[in-house]
Amino acid sequence: MTPGKGTSTAADPRFFTCAGPFDGAALASAAGAELLDRKDGGVAPQGGYTSIAPLQAAGGTDVSFLDNRRYAPLLDDTRAGLVIVAPAFVARVPSHCAALVTATPYLAWSRVARLFHPRPAAQPGVHPTASIAPTAKVDATAQIGAFVVVGDRAEIGAGSLVDAHTVIGDGVVLGQDCRIGSHVSITHALVGDRVTILPGARIGQDGFGFAVGPAGFESVPQLGRVLLEDDVEIGANSTIDRGSVNDTVIGAGSRLDNLVQIGHNARLGRCCIVVSQAGISGSTVLEDYVTVAAQAGLIGHIRIGTKARIGAQCGVMSDVESGADVIGSPAMPFREFFRNVAVLRKLSKKGSGSAQDDSGKA
Amino acid sequence: MTPGKGTSTAADPRFFTCAGPFDGAALASAAGAELLDRKDGGVAPQGGYTSIAPLQAAGGTDVSFLDNRRYAPLLDDTRAGLVIVAPAFVARVPSHCAALVTATPYLAWSRVARLFHPRPAAQPGVHPTASIAPTAKVDATAQIGAFVVVGDRAEIGAGSLVDAHTVIGDGVVLGQDCRIGSHVSITHALVGDRVTILPGARIGQDGFGFAVGPAGFESVPQLGRVLLEDDVEIGANSTIDRGSVNDTVIGAGSRLDNLVQIGHNARLGRCCIVVSQAGISGSTVLEDYVTVAAQAGLIGHIRIGTKARIGAQCGVMSDVESGADVIGSPAMPFREFFRNVAVLRKLSKKGSGSAQDDSGKA
Amino acid sequence: MTPGKGTSTAADPRFFTCAGPFDGAALASAAGAELLDRKDGGVAPQGGYTSIAPLQAAGGTDVSFLDNRRYAPLLDDTRAGLVIVAPAFVARVPSHCAALVTATPYLAWSRVARLFHPRPAAQPGVHPTASIAPTAKVDATAQIGAFVVVGDRAEIGAGSLVDAHTVIGDGVVLGQDCRIGSHVSITHALVGDRVTILPGARIGQDGFGFAVGPAGFESVPQLGRVLLEDDVEIGANSTIDRGSVNDTVIGAGSRLDNLVQIGHNARLGRCCIVVSQAGISGSTVLEDYVTVAAQAGLIGHIRIGTKARIGAQCGVMSDVESGADVIGSPAMPFREFFRNVAVLRKLSKKGSGSAQDDSGKA
């Protein structure tokens, strides 16, 4: 069996509800974009546009978009009824397509897609298999899934959804309109509003702290908390340890991808981005708008300045200035890193005759 | 307590059932190997061989094997009754051992081990604690474990086993003879036949996609699916995000190890291998038979050609040609990488006097 | 909402019980430290010290500590009543603070913190929602949480705590006084005493082993076990595969952080440390007291000598001698690595004019 063969590839109705159809004007309004009619004078589909689809799969009642110029050839061949594009691509829109033109096509696309496929609202109620402590406070508008555990004195805010098999520990506070995926564990944490946590994330467990005693390692009590501020998103199977004596803090609007590790007492500012498999060691501070790319690692007790960007697989061993772009292990400015790569390549070619003897030994 | 002290180290009957004993001819047949009698003229064990064991622990009724020449000294000292070896090692087989000789000893070993210890069949039935939606279709021959959740309209195929605490989301389709471990979550996915997913894997959650809006990041709806084709295996705690507008696809026969990250819209071809802690970013394409070694990272929107091999910890920032071997960060051909290492070592030794002043600053 | 604003940041009573107050003599005794009175002649707080807090948040009844000289300026400004410091910092202790002086302030802090906030004891009993096989042996003093599954013939020792949603597989043996977090899966494993496993760890699943057959990959049966010796700690969402034919062994007292991968048949000695996101491939051996820093990767079938230290992001492709310090990918001695960095920087600066043309191509 080849699963999915012959079925639609975007917004499969098995998985997504659809709020459409919408006409071009409604979509232009949602997108904050300008609507351009078809160049061939043809009319928009009777009854409106019905859904969204990628350029190569879209039909005449679908909306599609181009954001990455790498995929511009797909625009030439699309059969979409309506495409969202930047002004630079208007000339390339096929004559049978209407267009939504905007300087921010990805944002416009996001809003159009959301209009067609709104996020499901929480269905108020507690699944009969859930285990809720008598002293917990679950808002009547929250949705609690199968086999969820809510501990003593925990609080779940209005409109929040806690999916199947998640454990909310004693005393944890969860704000309003949160979306907590399945199999999540949250302990020793205070969580703001509109926080999203994907399946399998671990929030608030013991940090990695021990002292060397006469008979081996002794665990140092981890007595801080995790604070997830408003609008934070945490990826699947990521791990955020609680603080040892200070708190571990993820600032408002920050987004962490899957399999990210955040050590105890780390503090992220507002709107930081941490891409998958990156790790931030204990007590390190990220100011606001810092980006940490995939598989990068930061040692403990350093400070990364506002809007700094840490490249993929970067190994950061010391403070990074605001606005700096660093990459490499150890971290260095982007320009220096790529200059080193070029210099080494040149030396290596020049010396390849004499160096070849060594080349298999490393 | 030292757990396991003094107990058997392979196929412990606490954990594994045994289908033996088998005689040499049956094992040779299963292995597709040639049976060589003991050089000392001794006879095979009365009643057949009873189990498998590593060279250093095997006794006279055990079957063992040598696949890695690094461990050849263990062959000299083994007390196994029967050993599986390549032709090159026949001369080194002790005289009290019979041998199964084959050009593919590891494959032969695999089949012999499977003969002794077959994979447990699914025990048809639904555990009384499972929560199955009335509209779900669970085949009568499937096995559903404790506290499993199966959502609306989900389908579980014949002979499939879903272990304890796993959540199968609304509309998910699971084929025949699948093995889904405990604590797995699968949403927005179509899964083929004979697919194996180890505990804690996360399949089908939202990809990492957001646009920058006037008030901060705005989540881009993730409206694709995950397609796992036939015979795919996914490791423990790995994460596979669903597509944003296209699908995320894992091609037939591909195998992913533990803690692997697959971004939205990525497409892997047939029989790819992705080793633990590697990450493949969104919209990247792997053609067939690609190998990605441990902790390697691939940026998004690139293409890796058929049979290319990406080395451990490699950082791939651009397309890789079919059949190429690359390593390093940024990725380069194996030969170039090790030549660079050698050149730098030579330069560093030569200049070590003058460079030492800087050596502590990095 | 900014969660936690205005609340205490250490030992929040929502999450931690407090066994205090204690007077200075009791704390000095627990800490194994010398008590120094306030330099200003002031008296200790009436009724004793009540809790612990970080230097910057502590008040007059709190105990705090300085371990990292980076934070010494916080000592100057602290309002703590009692501080734990090394002899070198006694002169810098503010005159209104008493002091506990010791050569090992972090260990002393650990013991004082534990005195105030002891680890909660197991509450004997099985949660009514747990699913315990009739043939399992659960000690009467063990605590079994909600929705826990304990398989056939599994054994749970005295005083052990198994948190909600954890699955203990058939035949697994768990020793005394263990702490197993929520959402853990343990199969094919023997576990010693006082072992701690944090949420979401995966212990004992199939290793990544397959042979190439005529019709694609064939799984090699994984017939070994996982042995976790006494006092081992395993981090959140880490994965430890069972052996294929030998066992996978984690030696007594070893500590693994979050998101660590341990391949099949790997053997760690006593008191090894493996920091987050590091990976150890199959059949590799770590002798005793080895440290593997964050995101390091070790290939399979190598041996790391006693007390060797593997740096962060290091890529280890061959054996490492006892006591060696290595870093880089491929691994090399620390001195060589930083000398290489310095040499390359120097060359790159010298040649930056001619090399700039290449710098954007990599």
Task: Please outline the helices and strands.
Three copies of one chain form a homotrimer.
Chain A: H1 24-31, E1 34-36, E2 51-52, E3 62-65, H2 72-77, E4 82-85, E5 98-101, H3 105-116, E6 125-126, E7 131-132, E8 137-138, E9 143-144, E10 149-150, E11 155-156, E12 161-162, E13 167-168, E14 173-174, E15 179-180, E16 185-186, E17 189-191, E18 196-197, E19 202-203, E20 210-213, E21 216-219, E22 226-228, E23 233-234, E24 239-240, E25 248-250, E26 255-256, E27 261-262, E28 267-268, E29 273-274, E30 279-280, E31 285-286, E32 291-292, E33 297-298, E34 303-304, E35 309-310, E36 315-316, E37 325-327, E38 332-333, H4 334-350, H5 352-355
Parallel strand pairs in A: 2-3, 3-4, 4-5, 6-9, 7-10, 8-11, 9-12, 10-13, 11-14, 12-15, 13-16, 14-17, 15-18, 16-19, 17-22, 18-23, 19-24, 22-25, 24-27, 25-28, 26-29, 27-30, 28-31, 29-32, 30-33, 31-34, 32-35, 33-36, 35-37
Antiparallel strand pairs in A: 1-5, 20-21, 37-38
Helix pairs in contact in A: 1-3
Domain UDP-3-O-[3-hydroxymyristoyl] glucosamine N-acyltransferase non-repeat region (chains A, B, C): 50-115
Keywords (chains A, B, C): Acyltransferase, Lipid A biosynthesis, Lipid biosynthesis, Lipid metabolism, Repeat, Transferase
Protein name (chains A, B, C): UDP-3-O-acylglucosamine N-acyltransferase
